[in-house]
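User: quick one - fold this with benzoic acid bound?
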Amino acid sequence: MTVRIGDDAPNFTAETTQGRVNFYDWKGNSWAILFSHPRDFTPVCTTELGTVAKLMPEFAARNTKVIGLSVDPVESHHTWEKDIGEVMGTAVNFPMIADPDRTVSTLYDMIHPNASDTATVRSVFIIGPDNKVKLSLTYPASAGRNFDEVMRVLDALQLSAKFPVATPANWRPGQDVIVALSMSTEEARAKFPKGVTEVKSYLRTTPNP
Ligand code: BEZ
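Assistant: Sure. Structure tokens for the protein plus benzoic acid:
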């Protein structure tokens, strides 16, 4: 199944390292990040999981829950987590889905047969409080993800959910943002008291609200 931006994130129930999880119940009204790993005991994935574990306070500050997935069984995840703790100096402090029958991987189109018939690609889904998909990213097995970028785009998505703004290329929190196209410049000036700069009729900026 292809899961696209704006779609309802498919719900599922699965075994995880923190017990059986119904995705919607576990997620509640939070934001969520669902991300997949090709398989257990692989080097790039080991670095990714440790990196995400260290970022968990940052995700929590953004009301965002994180859940990983690999097609290996839960006993294997538990054994691998010990290695991750040793190598990365942190416990894996979020649940990891065990998906040996590929139910969740198939629901989220995480297996790309021309890359591998058995292992998932590196997918990232950011899902909003309304359970809709807000973003998806796909990396191959060979390239570890940049979780600073995942955090940056989460900030951008949350800002656009709160205010009628978009974010420019390479935007970082605190920098100027772009007024939504749906708003007239006059409406924007009333809405954003810090001021609006009209660079072009279609490109209006305002300080980070
Ligand atoms: C890795 O995580 O290092 C990896 C996983 C699957 C294939 C190649 C690399």
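One thing worth noting: The chain is about 30% helix and 25% strand.
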